[in-house]
Amino acid sequence: MVDVSDKAVTSRIATAAAWIKMSPETLAHVTAGTAKKGDVLGIARIAGIQAAKKTSDLIPLCHPLPITKVAVDLTPDANLPGVRIETTVKTTGQTGVEMEALSAASVAALTVYDMLKAVQKDMEIGGIKVTLKDGGKSGRFEA
Predict the structure, then answer these.
(1) 134 is catalytic
(2) Which domains does the chain carry?
(3) Chain centroid to CA 55: how far?
(4) Annotated active-site residue in 3, 114, 122, 134
């Protein structure tokens, strides 16, 4: 792990995005709430939050961080068609939360896939990226 002990404790935020493409018929199950496994967006939101909190357990050299906020927003998009995912993670610490935001977005997308794979197996996950990082020595990054 990188030694962050000399870094200043600052407020830090990161946002990330992802999407999962599916057929309009599969998306209809999401919007109508008719998926056999239950509330696709609600369960994916919880999975994303859990992933952010467990990032240091998943990514070997990540520091465990005292996360102060995790938000996972999943929005059905008929133009995709599919679901767009945006995550926000905040902390006050000595290192950033980009990996936590990326983990949240990735696991939320994987959970949507899991919830709907009985309906459609060829869904596509993509667009996983950091869209904002602020705080710390390197300052602000915005995609």
Answers:
(1) no
(2) 10-138 (3.30.70.640)
(3) 11
(4) 114
